[in-house]
């Protein structure tokens, strides 16, 4: 199984990554369910931070789609490694819902981060308000 964590920047003229997140999550739920991919999509201002975990073939295909997706740019790979078990649970693509406050989502996220490696948690802490 492969785990990828990357950041990218929205190309939406609004400058808010969140403006495309609902459409992206909807797409993700369809495809990820079929391909065994799980993960998390975090948005903060113009930034995306995404974790994807799943079978090598599925991740390679999704990565090709992500690299050519015009809704974001400057994809920066933070982690790309083999994993034994999923670190982020089995969400098909966890995302902060619009009606959920940042605080409530961050509490959920901090709960999740208790289970991940120190290195992985560090990337989130750099982006997510404490
Ligand atoms: C930040 C970001 C995250 C995305 N995450 C996913 C994802 O987890 N799963 C997914 O199927 N598509 C995701 N997409 C959409 C894919 O890039 C792509 O548009 C979609 O999977 C359809 O792929 P295709 O056009 O190659 O058929 C994401 C797009 C962006 C911009």
TrEMBL record:
Occurrences of domain BLUF (ranges): 1-94
Pfam families assigned to the protein according to its UniProt record, in alphabetical order: BLUF
Protein name: BLUF domain-containing protein
Species annotation: Sphingomonas psychrolutea
């Amino acid at each position: 199984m492969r785990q990828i964590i990357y950041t990218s920047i929205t190309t939406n003229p609004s400058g808010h990554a969140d403006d495309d997140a609902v459409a992206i999550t909807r797409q993700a739920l369809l495809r990820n369910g079929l391909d065994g991919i799980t993960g998390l999509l975090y948005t903060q201002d113009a930034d995306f931070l995404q974790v994807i975990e799943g079978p090598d073939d599925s991740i390679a295909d999704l990565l090709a789609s992500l690299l050519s997706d015009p809704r974001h740019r400057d994809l920066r790979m933070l982690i790309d490694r083999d994993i034994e078990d999923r670190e982020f649970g089995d969400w098909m693509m966890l995302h902060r819902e619009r009606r959920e406050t940042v605080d409530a989502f961050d509490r959920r996220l901090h709960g999740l981060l208790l289970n991940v490696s120190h290195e992985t948690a560090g990337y989130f802490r750099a982006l997510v308000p404490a």
